[in-house]
């Protein structure tokens, strides 16, 4: 039989499996996307509450409530940076989203215009409304 350039219509339908770009080790406490369970961050990457106390006892706020500040994240895409006036002043931030389900999770601090906020540069805010705790939590 001749080989066709196009497969028959019934063979075109394919399902996409949930494959994440990065998996965090099962032995560590992790945070995952509440919508699709893609790993987002290791608990060790969370900026500690002690550090928050040191920096004027600020609690991080997202557009949908409380948020956590992380040093690094995985399985996250980044949009274009834009200047926004946040509770702590003017910052250049880029929205971040889950690479798997495309839900907007928070933002990345690209630039802080005030010297007291420079520690946030390169860090990530993820809103608690979009995270779930996985692996090793008691």
UniProtKB/TrEMBL annotation:
<dbReference type="InterPro" id="IPR034751">
    <property type="entry name" value="Yippee"/>
</dbReference>
<protein>
    <recommendedName>
        <fullName>Protein yippee-like</fullName>
    </recommendedName>
</protein>
<comment type="similarity">
    <text>Belongs to the yippee family.</text>
</comment>
<dbReference type="Pfam" id="PF03226">
    <property type="entry name" value="Yippee-Mis18"/>
</dbReference>
<keyword id="KW-0862">Zinc</keyword>
<keyword id="KW-0479">Metal-binding</keyword>
<dbReference type="GO" id="GO:0046872">
    <property type="term" value="F:metal ion binding"/>
</dbReference>
<dbReference type="InterPro" id="IPR039058">
    <property type="entry name" value="Yippee_fam"/>
</dbReference>
<feature type="domain" description="Yippee">
    <location>
        <begin position="29"/>
        <end position="135"/>
    </location>
</feature>
<dbReference type="InterPro" id="IPR004910">
    <property type="entry name" value="Yippee/Mis18/Cereblon"/>
</dbReference>
